[in-house]
């Protein structure tokens, strides 16, 4: 889908309880109306459909989404593809999830052509969505990037505690304990991650060690 014309529409709208100026673009698929971002000089076009899923056979090839008869309001970024939500193990989402989010500099126009950002979320085709980063997510992102930077520069992820990194990450000095860091809004230390799973496989290999040696003598 090519954004051909960028029109700054002087139209006041009330979206999610807030007054916004709605940007409007003319595309090959028709007119698409977006939102002006609150945190920068750019516009957001959320949930633009690019393909249509056959509900009777969702694993078949998708077809191009038909052109819009009316102006498409690209306000919705809540679409989630089918996936298992952990740790509950419940299934959420809809197969009709072939949508894109496009972010455009607010100064872009047909005479001032600028790059745009098209967001395609990751997840290895197993999980993930295009929802914006929450303040809680940002805290964990900051924790991860700070610890990586500390490890590269200083050889330890937490050289000293702070409001962001509240506890020291203890190095492994006893294989039976295997301390690990649980990264969440509040950092916490634990020992022996997935203890029950690991114990099962330890017992399994001990009980079947003679079979393994008999079938793989070269690896003994």
Provide an overview of this structure.
With 220 residues, this protein is α+β, with helices and mostly antiparallel strands. 18% of the residues lie in helices and 30% in strands. It has a 4-stranded mixed beta sheet with strand order 1-2-3-8, with no helix packed on it. A 4-stranded antiparallel beta sheet has the order 4-5-11-12, with no helix packed on it. Strands 6-7 form a two-stranded antiparallel ribbon. Strand 2 and strand 3 form a beta hairpin. The protein is flat. The relative contact order is 0.10. The model is unreliable at 4-21 (pLDDT under 50).
Task: Provide a short characterization of the protein structure.
This protein is an alpha+beta fold. It has 3 helices and 14 strands.
SSE inventory with pairings:
Layout: E1 3-15, E2 18-27, E3 30-33, E4 35-36, E5 42-49, E6 51-52, E7 63-64, E8 72-73, E9 83-85, E10 90-92, E11 99-105, E12 117-119, H1 135-154, E13 179-182, E14 188-191, H2 195-207, H3 209-215
Parallel strand pairs: 3-8
Antiparallel strand pairs: 1-2, 2-3, 4-5, 5-11, 6-7, 9-10, 11-12, 13-14
């Amino acid at each position: 889908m090519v954004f051909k014309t960028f029109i700054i529409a002087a139209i006041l709208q009330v979206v999610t309880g807030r007054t916004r100026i709605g940007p409007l673009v003319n595309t090959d698929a028709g007119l698409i109306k977006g939102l002006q971002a609150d945190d920068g000089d750019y516009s957001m076009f959320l949930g633009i459909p690019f393909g249509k899923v056959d509900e009777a056979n969702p694993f078949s090839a998708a077809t191009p989404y038909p052109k819009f008869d009316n102006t498409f309001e690209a306000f919705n970024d809540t679409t989630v593809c089918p996936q298992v939500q952990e740790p509950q193990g419940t299934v959420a989402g809809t197969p009709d999830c072939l949508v894109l989010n496009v972010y455009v500099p607010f100064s872009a126009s047909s005479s001032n052509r600028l790059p745009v950002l098209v967001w395609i979320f990751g997840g290895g085709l197993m999980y993930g969505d295009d929802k914006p980063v929450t303040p809680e997510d940002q805290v964990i992102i900051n924790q991860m990037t700070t610890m990586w930077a500390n490890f590269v520069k200083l050889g330890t992820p937490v050289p000293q505690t702070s409001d962001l990194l509240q506890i020291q990450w203890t190095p492994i000095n006893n294989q039976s304990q295997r301390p690990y860091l649980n990264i969440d809004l509040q950092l916490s230390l634990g020992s022996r991650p997935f203890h029950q799973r690991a114990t099962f496989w330890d017992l399994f290999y001990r009980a079947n060690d003679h079979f393994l040696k008999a079938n793989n003598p070269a690896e003994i």
